[in-house]
Amino acid sequence: MIVLLAVIIGLSTIIVFPSFSEAEFELKTFVTHSGKVIRTTGEVIDPLYTVSTVEFDPMEYLREFNYGKVSKLEDGTTVREYTIIAEDDKIMEVSPGVFYNVWTYNGTVPGPTIRATEGDLLKINFINNGSKEHTIHFHGIHPAEMDGVFEIVGPGGGKFIYEFEAGPVGVHPYHCHVMPLEEHIVHGLYGVFIVDPKEGREPADEMVMVLNGLDTDFDTENNFYAANTIPFYYQHHPIQINTNELIRVYVVNMVEFDPINNFHLHGNLYNYYPTGTDLVPSFYTDMITLSQTERGIMEFEYTYPGKYLFHAHKVEFSEKGWVGMFLVNDNAQSDKSGMEYGS
Amino acid sequence: MAVSDTSKLKVAASGLIPFAFVIVLMLYIFGPGGDMLDFGIALPEITIEQVDFIDSEIQATVRNTGPIPVQVVVADVNDRIQPAAVEPDGYLERYETTLVRIPFEWNEAEPYRIGITIDDGTRFEKEIESAAFALKFTPDLAIFFAIIGTYVGIIPVMIGLLWLPFIKKISKQKYHFFLALTAGLLLFLAIDSIEESIEVSNENLANSFNGALLVSTVVVLSFLALYYVGNKIVSKSDSLHFSKPVAIGLMISIGIGLHNFGEGLAIGAAVGIGSIAFSTFLIVGFALHNTTEGIAIAAPMSRGKLMIGKLAIMGVIAGSPAIFGAWIGGFAYSPFTSVIFLAIGAGAIFQVILVLLKWIQKENDGNLSNLPVVSGFAIGMLVMYFTSILV
Question: What CATH number does residue B67 fall under?
Answer without folding.
Answer: 2.60.40
